[in-house]
Design goal:
The chain is of the alpha+beta class. The protein has three helices and eleven strands. The strands form two sheets. Strands 3, 4, 5, 6, 8, 9, 10 and 11 form an eight-stranded antiparallel β-sheet that branches. Strand 8 and strand 9 form a beta hairpin.
């Protein structure tokens, strides 16, 4: 028997939809949650911005103050032209020098007289000196102390010269026997080397107002007696130590 002929498959027209298919759910994007800034965060931001502004203003103000202070200091320096005083060893004499040898050692008795000349080279500034501590020593290498003294404070006017008298006494000072006799020999020949040191505080004065003082060390060293006896006045050196506020 022959098979019946197959029926052709009908094509679906365009836009045809099958009614028996279930409707597919439509996926919608989820709505984003809106995050609002909290009042605390806003306060912190305002506080930080305020602090930053204050710091910037303070730094700018300090910078202006520094610039003004430097400029004012420069103008005052150019106007007054401050200078340190000038020291000279004007005179030195050994009035007494004895060395006594005993069983327990050698003892020194000495008396000295000297003068230091101080010149204030400033034309517009006076100088205020504190107490001046003077120390006298003599000899080469290991020096022997010949006493010390303290001169009272004073004020020196501008472009003025002041001569300070120095007297020291040493009684029964223990010394090395050889060093003591070298002092006596050098004093007789004039070859003895004398060293005068001083420590004090000086400050400038403007119209009676005292400026902060500075501590200085003055050294008049390496001077032979015969040079001083001829009338030489060697210049002393000055070393700044530190400021006193």
């Amino acid at each position: 028997m022959t098979e019946p002929p197959l029926k052709p498959v009908l094509q679906k027209p365009p836009g045809y939809k099958e009614l028996n298919l279930a409707a597919q759910p439509v996926v919608r994007p989820s709505a984003r949650k809106l995050i609002l800034p909290s009042p605390m965060n806003q306060k912190n931001k305002k506080r930080r911005s305020f602090c930053r502004g204050c710091c910037c203003f303070l730094c700018f103000f300090l910078l202006i103050l520094i610039i003004v202070a430097v400029a004012a200091g420069g103008v005052l320096y150019l106007w007054f032209e401050p200078k340190l005083p000038v020291f000279h060893l004007q005179l030195f004499r050994i009035l007494k020098l004895n060395v006594t040898d005993k069983s327990d050692g050698s003892y020194l008795n000495a008396r000295t007289l000297g003068r230091i000349e101080i010149k204030n080279p400033n034309s517009k500034l006076s100088l205020n000196y504190g107490d001046i501590e003077i120390k006298i020593a003599a000899g080469e290498g290991t020096q022997t102390e010949l006493g010390s003294t303290i001169l009272r404070s004073f004020v020196q006017s501008n472009e003025n010269k002041t001569s300070l008298k120095i007297e020291t006494i040493v009684s029964n000072e223990t010394v090395d026997s050889g060093a003591g006799w070298k002092l006596i020999s050098g004093n007789r020949t004039g070859e003895l080397i004398v060293n005068v040191g001083a420590e004090t505080k000086i400050g400038y004065m403007v119209n009676g107002r005292r400026m902060p003082p500075v501590k200085i060390e003055v050294t008049c060293g390496g001077v032979r007696l015969k040079s001083l006896n001829r009338g030489d006045m060697p210049k002393c050196s000055i070393h700044l130590r530190r400021w006193f506020l």
